[in-house]
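Workshop exercise sheet. Pairs work together: one partner reads the sequence aloud, the other fills in the structure field after running the prediction. Swap roles for the next sheet.
Pair: D.N. / O.F.
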Amino acid sequence: MTRQSDSETPDSDPRHPAALDELDLRILAVLRDHGRISVPQLADAVHVSRATAYVRLRRLHELDVVRGFAAVVNPMRAGTPVGALVLVKSAQPGHRRWTRWKEQLEAIDAVEYAAMVAGDTDVLVLLRVKDHEELRRVLLEQIQDIDFVGSTQTLMILDELVNRPYVVPS
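Structure field:
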């Protein structure tokens, strides 16, 4: 058995969940729905002192549980009302270069989200575009131009039923 160094704690390992208590989870639930809330308002919402709310929020940042705050954008109002999920299969299953795929996908402005997945599909991509013409262009000229893309299947999003930036553990 190896001894854990003082600088290596379970909370410092980004591959493992941080030790969060019930108060941390309440804070995360409030932040999910009200990311611009002030520390005094957060303290009131979770029924703790301002100092406690501030310390806990700072700790959540330090643990990389809370990475930052971002606007939740309404794609319809922002001019990208067409959403599509693209299922991507590698052309060479034994020769995947995920780091290059990540870089190439990040370079496409229409990509909102991308994940390596298990199953028949290798990568799942969420695209947001202004119209079907732009979707066609992104699919044919950008996605299918990525190294090792063998095939794609596109699923058009008709309506978003649940869209949460974070799911509070139960």
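Discussion prompt: The chain has two domains: 19-72, 75-156. What would you look at next?
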